[in-house]
Amino acid sequence: MKALIKVGYACNDRCVLCHAADHRHIQDVGRRTELKIARAAKLGHRMVVLSGGEPTISSDLFRLVRRASSLGLELGLITNARALAVPDLTDRLVGEGLRYAYVSLHGGTADIHDAVTRTPAFDQTLAGISNLADKEVDLTINCVVNRLNINHLRDWVECVLPFSTARLKLSMTEPKGEAWRHFDEVVPSVTDAAAAACDAISYAEKMSPARGILHDGFPLCLMPGFEDRYDDLWSHGFATMAEVWEDDLHPIDDHNKVQPAKCSGCGLRGPCGGLYKGYQERLGDSEIKARPGTRSNSYNLVPQAIMRWREGEPCPIRNATTPYDRARTLFLRNGERLTLMRTTSRDFATAELLESKLSYGQIYVDASDKPAPDDFRADLLKLIRLDTCEACPNASACTGCYRTSREDVFSRDDAAVREVVSKLRGTVLDVGCGEGLYDDVLGPLGEQGLIEYSGVDPDRGAIERLGARWPWADLTEARAEDIEPAKESLDHVLVLRSYNHIASPEKVMRSLVAGLRPGGTLLIVDNVAFGLVRKPRHAGRAEQGPARFEHYRNDSAADAAALLADLPLAQITRHDVSPATSNQWLLHFKRL
Asked: 167 lies in which domain range?
């Protein structure tokens, strides 16, 4: 993991898009920066990355470099690389631990780059990049797309492609600092900027098929074909950062971006950063085009560091909560062992991770060692927050400590479903029947002729397997969107753990409700997303396994109830997900 530490905001460039333009006079005190470096080491980070402003012009640079080295930390720089045009300086930094560099080059020619930096910087920056490219340094060359360079990105591609060891990246201008003050002159339409970035990426691939260009700051719906090229601080392994005026490290976050309401149904929501808030404030979000698609319904948390918490001792993180990301980390206590768990998943937006962990409380230890748990009751142990955490005055700021619970919440919550299913009589339509859920309940009802059962599922193999088990059932291979039961022909409709697999739930639910007789019932059961605590080996194998993304959403009971609100239904029962339940929810309605 990396820590990003700002050493001051002075810079030898004067970029038209500078974030820190209002703070250029502020420099940190070397001693305080050293304390932040020591903090990074204590947190188990392997690298500190110095940034600014421009860190290479700091008079404390080598003092900080030596401090990092003395603590066993590797060094990184976010830099304009002008000072690194001096080979001796670059060699010295590499000799003292420089292993990562993120360099800004905003044009492929001097006139374009220097117009952005408002200094004659191009030759020095290019020379600095050249010096770094010859070393064992993880090098990224980043270009911020703005109105001055948007029509010249192919020139930039031609300039940087020869640096074969470098990671290449295009970023959207964030309306902040100078870019906010000169918005109309600097910030392009995000649609135009994304189109120009896509063109540059395609051009690079034609020139050098083996090279790829990454991107940041563009909503993924505007990057067709290049959605998997998203790259940001998390992608680079950053966990924490500190501005000059902050006394402690804080989690990396994406609070400067927003996902509008229309993004809630987008299959790209998880990995997408969204739209810069400043951009939305000035130009709105009409350019966002949500795209339906399948998503993951779980994420992995793996061990990062281990502490000791002996009986009778105060909580070791109570007065040091700020570096831990509440969405992406938690502590797992097992006796005196306190393990920091962290997820690097990009399948979920930060807001979704917070909801899963804090609102729903759906984190489990995967005790199965399977690529995908298939028997939640046997495979998963629920995590619950320690009682001492709930009473702690720092609870609202802390990532929290958890322990495993031996309570079988899955069987308990499933009992409510079984009770409803056992009372079915008459005509039954089961949407998404392929797995043959509740076989021990539905089987006897079908065999005894108490129900006239029809099931639909898009998986032909699943239909064939179920037909062999249930010869009394009328089974059809079909998508939920393709079925339209006869009006008022059904006594009951079941949607058992298939609701979130339906691409167009509003259309399907209207059709299903229309097929119910007055007094007939609709039972919907499904799951919200959940986190799985796993060992790195287990997590890696699971992420490379054969499981497919099959969920279009991870909707809750509240989400589904809102979608059904204008249909002629009266609620019989509703079971929501909470920290005291499994991740399964239930809605049971009667047709009016």
From this structure: 2-283
